[in-house]
Design a protein that fits this description.
This protein has helices spanning 50-77, 84-113, 119-132, 141-170, 173-177, 182-197, 201-209, 213-241, 256-261, 266-270, 289-298, 300-308, and strands at 5-11, 14-20. By secondary structure, the chain is mainly α. It has a two-stranded antiparallel ribbon with strand order 1-2. Bound molecules: fe (ii) ion (2 copies). One fe (ii) ion binds at residues 97, 159, 162, 195, 198.
Amino acid sequence: MAAPMVNGHAFGSRVFERPVFAEPDRVALRPRDVRYDWASLPMHWVPDDPFTTHVLNVLHLLLPEGERWFVRVFSEALPLIRDERLAEDVRGFIGQEAMHAEVHQGVLEHLRAHGLDPEPFVAQVRWLFRQALGSRELPTERLRQEWLIERVAGVAAIEHFTAVLGDMILNSPGFDAADVDPVMLDMLRWHGAEEVEHRAVAFDLYQHLDGGYLRRVRQMLVVAPAMAALWVQGTRFLMAADPTGKRRPKLRDLGRPYRRYGLAHPFTLLTSFVPYLRPGYHPSQHGSTAQAVAYLAGSPSARAADERVGR
Ligand SMILES: [Fe+2]
Ligand SMILES: [Fe+2]
């Protein structure tokens, strides 16, 4: 792999250097058996910043159930794939998402053990992914397949955002400077890197099974506002359930992750779905596989996982 070059990347009043890598043609996707010890994780793992901590903690509320749903939907779709390369990618995707779900579940259990009970919110997320979006008893094979493709289009839309967030967390040097808990930061970046690594799989699967432009757009127009609403509700829930004191997020808090750490501006996140609406869009146009692979090669948790299997 070529040595990274660097270009200046303006972010508000600061300039962060964003590395530019030579992109590989293809990466074999595989799960990494990572382990994290949360024993010394402080409740506010972004120091002195409950708001930013809980905005990111929403990931732990949504992902265990959400990613298990991805795994069920993609396992259902596997027998329909007529392209061995894509089937291989889908199997790698399933392995990675299953691991992500379990790791975020571990954080939820840590929060519960330390006085923040996530269950009232997680129960709603569970209902959404298991009941509302689960498999349905439908009378014909054609209807069953339609429902499956609809859900694959939904996963592809969600995966657009996980790739955007993954790219953001890989390019967040402000977090290192802020002394964010290093285990949590490595976990988020490991997950973010795998999201960037497999960012095209759900989209390619949808293109392979159906590829209809209107369905793709329709799903995004449902998913984008739903995710924004879940994030707002999840943040409010966590702030109110915080065992160190009940808080209410304020409108002015919204810009803090951007101002203080250079994370994506809320407006950038809210409008990040727009490129997805272009007919010629492909996930490979955003984010860097090489950067993701480079992070995974140096990540303490990913390296330890590789050593465990003798890689
Ligand atoms: Fe994931
Ligand atoms: Fe993903």
